[in-house]
Write a structure and sequence with these properties.
mainly alpha; two-stranded antiparallel sheet; 196 residues; 3% strand; elongated; 2 strands
């Protein structure tokens, strides 16, 4: 019985690790290179490799029918996609857009002592202006369909309004910094309270 369980776990792990390797390697191919938003490209790759994992599990079911059935194929697909989605959004997506990652990386490449004012200036000049961080994030909202272009400029559309409402619900559930989702309600008095 223990050998049987160990074999099942081993096969699950082999399939998971093999397909996870394929998932990472896909980012080093020209496939979907035109998809500018890393997160969207990653989601498509997760679904593709999740399907591959399900196919491999189907062949495992055919070879070891006493160990696996159709629920294992479904479990492999759902488990693979779930775990890799969490890891992908937690690590690569964070690395790609995190202020903290930029700050620490800059300090590592440029050893020295910095004041907060120094880092704010560096952040503004390099991250925001030189790297066009805001432009990139705003274009993501256009691609996501939250903003429409008009003759005068850009406007938040109905989908964008729904997205904001969703973010506000999430913020209230998890107690995140509400200044980001209610920017007009933040004032100097709040800044003093935050500093305290």
């Amino acid at each position: 019985m223990i050998k049987k369980i160990a074999k099942i776990i081993g096969i699950y792990l082999v399939v998971y690790l093999l397909c996870s390797t394929v998932f990472v390697l896909l980012f080093h191919t020209p496939l979907l290179k035109g998809m500018e938003v890393l997160m969207y490209r990653g989601i498509v790759f997760i679904l593709m490799t999740g399907i591959l994992a399900a196919i491999l599990m189907f062949f495992c079911k055919r070879k070891w029918s006493s160990l696996f059935d159709f629920k294992d194929i479904i479990l492999m697909f759902l488990g693979f996609c779930s775990v890799n989605m969490v890891l992908f959004t937690l690590i690569p997506v964070t690395v790609e857009r995190s202020v903290s990652v930029f700050t620490l990386s800059y300090m590592e490449e440029n050893p020295g002592v910095y004041t907060i004012e120094d880092m704010e200036k560096i952040f503004q000049e390099k991250y925001v202006c030189e790297f066009q961080a805001f432009d990139k994030r705003f274009k993501e909202q256009i691609v996501s369909g939250n903003v429409d272009e008009t003759e005068e400029g850009y406007v938040l559309n109905e989908r964008g309004k729904f997205t904001v409402k969703f973010f506000r619900v999430v913020s209230s559930m998890f107690g995140t910094d509400e200044r980001l989702i209610y920017p007009n309600e933040y004032n100097e008095e709040d800044a003093e309270k935050t500093a305290e």
